[in-house]
Amino acid sequence: MKLKELGEFGLIDRIKSGVTAPDGMTGIGDDCAVIPQGDGIDLLVSTDMLVEGIHFILDDIKPYRLGWKSAAVNLSDIAAMGGLPVATFLSFALPESLDSKWTDEFFKGYNDISGRYHCTLLGGDTTASSDKVCISVTILGKCVSGKALLRSGAREGDKICVTGYLGDAGAGLKVILEGARRNSDAQALIAMHYQPIPRIEEGLKLAVAEGVHSMIDISDGIGSDLRHVLRASRKGAVVNVNKLPLSDELLRTCRRNGWDPLELAISGGEDYELLFTADPDAEIDIPHTVIGEITDTGRLDWLGTDRDFGGYHHF
Ligand code: ADP
Ligand code: MG
User: Which residues bind Mg(2+) 2 (predicted)?
Assistant: First the structure.
């Protein structure tokens, strides 16, 4: 079967079927692997790749921002477990035509966002590339043993919560791809696309909060990422689209360009906000918005719209 038909997640399922994680370890299927260290600490490991032409357009993105983003998307996977970042490793395939000023700027951005969390680059690999830039980052983090917030913990009746706004990064990408006018709103959206702030502090607070059951970071839009939680937890959900947190910048830019803010908020991706589920009466001590509820239907239903946003997902 061609990979196009199999799809990214079909391929990951196939890879997963060939391995069994050793007892006590969490392997393929969550934002990080979880590897108990036996001293009250669990090691968290994740890896993410950014490829020119797929994840970024080299002529459009400043190297500082690309460095920032390369670290930020990995830090976000540690945030998604409620973990503390420790260190990263970075592998690069670079065309010889690039300048060392470019790599200097790249590492300024990379180290600026990593440094906020005292997460240091400890190694990597560098090779030549015939054409495109390819960046692969592996991140290590840690959490208190057994306290990582997994995708599989959602319970029926849980409220579904998200941090921040949804759709801004997707709108920023649309501004870039469609050449829309770059006024101050559009610039702010582009910044959300290129320089996301990983929700590390929020993730750490959620990991120790009472009644929080599951978590994922929103890298592909809630339409996809909430489905990962539902599938891993074998649950369904109802989401009220009128509750989705939308920024003024997003709403104004959508009005100006005739774009659909709901489509961007649900399917836009790359917001790197956290989506978590918690007991309905759990006290959550970070800014967040409740967008729906976990059900036992096995379906994802959208309230407040006739549209399907990708439709059902049966487990
Ligand atoms: P995220 O969006 O959080 O980075 P992905 O959707 O990329 O997560 O991956 C989902 C899960 O599949 C993760 O647990 C990841 O480690 C695993 N995975 C993805 N690609 C591969 C691969 N090529 N080999 C093994 N595991 C993979
Ligand atoms: Mg993730």
Answer: 48, 77
